[in-house]
Design a protein that fits this description.
Helices cover 38% and strands 15% of the residues. Helix 2 crosses helix 9, helix 10 packs parallel to helix 12 and helix 11 packs across helix 12. The protein has 390 residues and is an alpha/beta fold. A seven-stranded mixed beta sheet has the order 2-10-9-8-5-3-4, sandwiched between helices. A three-stranded antiparallel beta sheet has the order 11-14-13, with helices on one face. It has a two-stranded parallel ribbon with strand order 1-12. Bound molecules: 4'-deoxy-4'-aminopyridoxal-5'-phosphate. 4'-deoxy-4'-aminopyridoxal-5'-phosphate binds next to helix 3. Keywords: Pyridoxal phosphate. Belongs to the class-V pyridoxal-phosphate-dependent aminotransferase family. This is Alanine--glyoxylate aminotransferase.
Length: 390
């Protein structure tokens, strides 16, 4: 008689089944074979010297992708949200005021995270698809005197690429750190961490970088470092404590000691994706994403669809938002395309649910052939998806 009260799960005795999907939504994107195979290399120890060399390469790759010379640069062991939490948990102390630009879901998330850790989150709010002017931000900075201002560069829920020029200097005039989310834009739209005076910048692995989800590049300026390392209280998270992580990533000049077991395979894959970015060149990549986005946008307009972001200069090249065509249910369209093309495109997220369809052409997926395929799938869906009776 077995002592077990929970039987063997029958489904686990069947082979793993993973369908092929063309991932043309806002992420994750498809992982090219070269990155998949890098992630499939045999495991080594997280504290082996070869692993530290790989981490050093990752750090250099992130410095290149971010265009920064910041010493405190690394990949967080976790998804984009973990990097968002690492930024806020380390740079802000309980009771301090932060100013959050909310023009889509990511600002809402940043405000939520700030409140959970006991910060006073002031929201600067715009409708989905809108941007903030420097004057509006300056007014809020002078009114609230926050220690940090959060803005999303590539707002993937609305399709906006928020202008960043002048923001860093403006924040610094008010003794405030600038925190920027580039999860959906890094590698596909220009960003210059040092030149634009961004204090904390983070991203994710699963979008333009085409690595599996689960690692998240992040970097801190000298100004951010000073604030973080002169805190009065410990950050609320041990796992995301930048004191420990700086050591793990060889950023503090001290011998590395065990903090946590990093995602070894995820780091192999991330190194490979940063190697590909280095081979292709950032500027080439930006240009290519811009050209493919324009091609897609023209094709969408030819289909009679309307782009959600009216101002061409504010459209995010990596994730395109399409206004849900009148008389259609967006769920029918995405379901039709999944069923008939095994292709993911998605509806909106957070405040943009019901307003938009979202198409991502990112990194390896950013090709004319994929743009053509998504246009064909959408044209087909428009013909076949019954118009609602409203
Ligand atoms: N910020 C932006 C702009 C994103 O697009 C995403 C992911 N869709 C995130 C943050 C969160 O990243 P993750 O899902 O990897 O936690």
């Amino acid at each position: 008689m077995s002592s077990l009260t929970v039987p063997v799960p029958a489904s686990l005795l069947l082979p793993l089944k993973v369908p092929y999907r063309l991932m043309l939504g806002p992420g994750p994107s498809n992982v090219p074979p070269r990155i998949l195979s890098a992630g499939g290399r045999p495991i080594i120890g997280h504290m082996h010297k070869e692993m530290f060399e790989i981490m050093d390469d990752i750090k250099k790759g992130i410095q290149y992708a971010f265009q920064t010379k910041n010493e405190l640069t690394m990949a967080i062991s976790g998804s984009g949200h973990a990097a968002m939490e690492a930024a806020l948990y380390n740079a802000v102390e309980r009771g301090e005021t932060v100013l959050i630009g909310v023009n889509g879901i990511w600002g809402e998330r940043a405000a939520d995270i700030s409140e959970r850790m006991g910060a006073d989150a002031k929201r600067l709010v715009k409708l989905p698809g809108e941007c903030f002017t420097l004057q509006e931000i300056e007014q809020a900075l002078s009114k609230h005197k926050p220690v940090l201002f959060f803005i999303t560069h590539g707002e993937s829920s609305t399709g906006i690429a928020h202008p960043l020029d002048g923001l860093g200097a403006l924040c610094h005039k008010y003794n405030c750190l600038l925190l920027v989310d580039s999860v959906a834009s890094l590698g596909g739209a220009p960003i210059y961490m040092d030149k634009q005076e961004i204090d904390i910048l983070y991203s994710g692995s699963q979008k333009v970088l085409n690595a599996p989800p689960g690692t998240a590049p992040i970097s801190f300026s000298e100004r951010a470092k000073q604030k973080i390392f002169s805190r009065e209280t410990k950050p609320v998270s041990f796992y995301l404590d930048m004191g420990w992580l700086a050591n793990y990533w060889g950023c503090d000049g001290k011998p590395r000691v065990y903090h946590h077991t990093g995602p070894v395979s995820g780091f192999f894959a991330l190194r490979e994706s940063l190697a590909i970015l280095a081979e292709q060149g950032l500027e080439n990549n930006w240009k290519h994403h811009q050209e493919m986005a324009l091609y897609l946008h023209q094709g969408l307009e030819k289909l009679g669809l309307k782009l959600f972001v009216k101002d061409k200069n504010l459209r995010l090249p990596t994730v395109t938002t399409i206004a849900v065509p009148e008389g259609y249910d967006w769920r029918d369209i995405t379901a039709y395309i999944m069923k008939n093309y095994s292709m993911e495109i998605t509806g909106g997220l957070g405040p943009s649910v019901g307003m938009v369809l979202r198409v991502g052409l990112m990194g390896y997926n950013c090709t004319k052939a994929n743009a053509d395929l998504v246009l064909q799938a959408l044209g087909d869906a428009l013909q076949h998806c019954q118009k609602s009776k409203v």
